[in-house]
Design a protein that fits this description.
- The chain has a single domain, classed as Alpha/Beta hydrolase fold, catalytic domain (Rossmann fold, 3-Layer(aba) Sandwich), CATH 3.40.50.1820.
- 42% of the residues lie in helices and 16% in strands.
- The chain has helices at 39-46, 72-86, 98-111, 142-165, 180-192, 195-207, 211-216, 238-244, 260-263, 265-277; strands at 3-5, 11-17, 24-28, 51-55, 91-96, 117-123, 221-226, 248-253.
- Strands 1-2-4-3-5-6-7-8 form an eight-stranded mixed beta sheet, sandwiched between helices.
- The protein is globular and about 45 Å long.
- This is Non-heme chloroperoxidase.
- Belongs to the AB hydrolase superfamily. Bacterial non-heme haloperoxidase / perhydrolase family.
């Protein structure tokens, strides 16, 4: 399997499909999943002539289950290691949820300074800050994230069943069409990764203030968010975050859940393509 090795000797698994001369699109997955979460989008875009790349974050999927480095700085640096190894230029970077935070940190700290990024897309993304603080009173209280850590530590396998069965895809809503295979695939991806990486990743996605990252991003940016997102509430993320971006467009989706890229892929893929080609 293809891997690159980071400067601190972590082997990062990646996929690289399509013509090497085509414009690259790089996908950044959410917590606690893997690059497999982007299969629908990668197949869609490779069929439209793009080069598509996705990697498993350290401690996730097929990448090394290392003890350290489960924070946004390492996430972004690992992504840049993949970009440099594959020499991706003029790339589109798309991140979902925690992957949206990774994209924001990557573009601000690595992609723009190196001149390698063309556009950014944040989908159901966690920036600017999920945690409730004195400066961010609209955020979620620490007890919410402590509860996630407690559930993961007590019985990760059951927790990773309950989350996709319930609010992640909106399958707990009245009248929702439930896809058992989607739930099983979420569980499969989660259980491939490291419990320690997932436990510490909760702090990374909830407590990292990315206000300055967003302010620094000058490339055209699209923020897509479901209005019924129960994992990353739109008011705590997109509504505030898009105001910090100098060159951004916000597109919201009434009734769509956090995992809309999977359960509403037909709509989302068309909108992604329109922005990328625009």
């Amino acid at each position: 399997m293809p891997f690159i090795t980071t400067s601190d000797n972590v082997n990062i698994f990646y996929k690289d499909w399509g013509p090497k001369t085509a414009q690259p699109i790089m996908f950044h997955h959410g917590w606690p999943l893997s690059s497999d979460d982007w299969d629908t989008q990668m197949l869609f875009f490779v069929q439209h002539g793009y080069r598509v790349v996705a990697h498993d974050r350290r401690g996730h999927g097929r990448s090394d289950q290392v003890s350290e480095g489960h924070d946004m700085d390492h996430y972004a640096a690992d992504a840049f290691a993949v970009v440099e190894a594959l020499d991706l230029k003029n790339a589109i970077h798309i991140g979902h949820s925690t992957g949206g935070g990774e994209v924001a940190r990557y573009v601000a700290k690595h992609g723009q300074p190196a001149g390698r990024v063309a556009k950014a897309i944040l989908v159901s993304a966690v920036p600017p800050l999920m945690l409730k603080t004195d400066a961010n009173p609209e955020g979620l209280p620490m007890e919410v994230f402590d509860g996630l850590r407690a559930a993961l530590a007590a019985n990760r396998a059951q927790f990773f069943t309950d989350l996709p069965t319930g609010p992640f895809y909106g399958f707990n809503r009245d009248g929702a069409k439930v896809y058992p295979g989607v739930i099983q695939n979420w569980w499969r991806q989660g259980m491939m990764g490291s419990a320690k990486a997932h436990y510490e990743g909760i702090k990374a996605f909830s407590e990292t203030d990315q206000t300055e990252d967003l302010k620094a991003i000058t490339v055209p940016t699209l923020w897509m968010h479901g209005e019924d997102d129960k994992i990353v509430p739109i008011a705590d993320a997109a509504i505030k975050g898009v105001k910090l971006l100098p060159n951004a467009t916000l597109k919201t989706y009434p009734g769509y859940p956090h995992g809309m890229l999977t359960v509403n892929a037909d709509v989302l893929n068309a909108d992604l393509l329109a922005f990328i080609k625009g």
